[in-house]
Amino acid sequence: DIEVVAAFDVDQRKVGRDVHAAIFAKPNCTTVFCIDLPPAGVTVRMGKILDGIADHMKDYPDNHAFVLSEEPEPTATEIIKVLKESGAQILTNYLPVGSEDATRFYADCALEAGVAFVNNIPVFIASDAAWAKRFADKNLPIIGDDIKSQMGATITHRILTDLFKKRGVKLKRTHQLNTGGNTDFLNMLEQKRLATKKESKTEAYRPWPPGVCRTKTSMSAPVTTCLGRKTTRSLSFAWRASFLVTCP
């Protein structure tokens, strides 16, 4: 079982509220499949901003973007204290894609607090040898980097490429479009935030051993498209992924 004992955010619609209410607050636009959540007894605290929010986000309506809390940002010492006093065992990182400095900040806090770190975004921590060693030296688990949705474009892409291999098809080129309608995708319109995202997804499409076939992964430019808020949730158009297949 997972018990939430502490939470951090930077949006004023979430900071200061119980977790059970904060998770549904704007700019969240995901489908709600469980509305009867009991109070968690955990108040969302102000987090560290750093590079979590792209500059262009201020040009969008509040319902689509982040509304920064006026609460003072905590120091690393304060966050470490919360992690220790709350009894946390695992710190999960779900910062916006491209939050390089902020992710490293929280990873450092996890190390100092003596808790495991699960990195759910494509900023290379677990896959970085130096970071991995720091956690290993303290006998702390580090898991990541990035996370797949249950049935999104990435896992569908991998299964299809594996299927082609098993059916004797030599796949030379693939093309996938990442399209979404949530605030994270809007934040990702700042192209510099996408470097590690593209690398993470490209690596996910290389399951074949050398010599089996020649593969090349191509991602559109811009890599990520935001649909706007016409949708009520984040969309991953797995069915829109197109495959260019050359048979022998």
UniProtKB/TrEMBL annotation:
Q: Which organism is this entry from?
A: marine sediment metagenome
**One biological process GO term for this chain?**
inositol biosynthetic process
List the InterPro entries hit by this protein, alphabetically. Answer: MIPS, Myo-inos-1-P_Synthase_GAPDH, NAD(P)-bd_dom_sf
* Pfam families recorded: Inos-1-P_synth (PF01658)
- Please report the name of this protein according to its UniProt entry: Myo-inositol-1-phosphate synthase GAPDH-like domain-containing protein
List, for all copies, the residue spans of the domain called Myo-inositol-1-phosphate synthase GAPDH-like.
152-204
* Molecular function in Gene Ontology: inositol-3-phosphate synthase activity
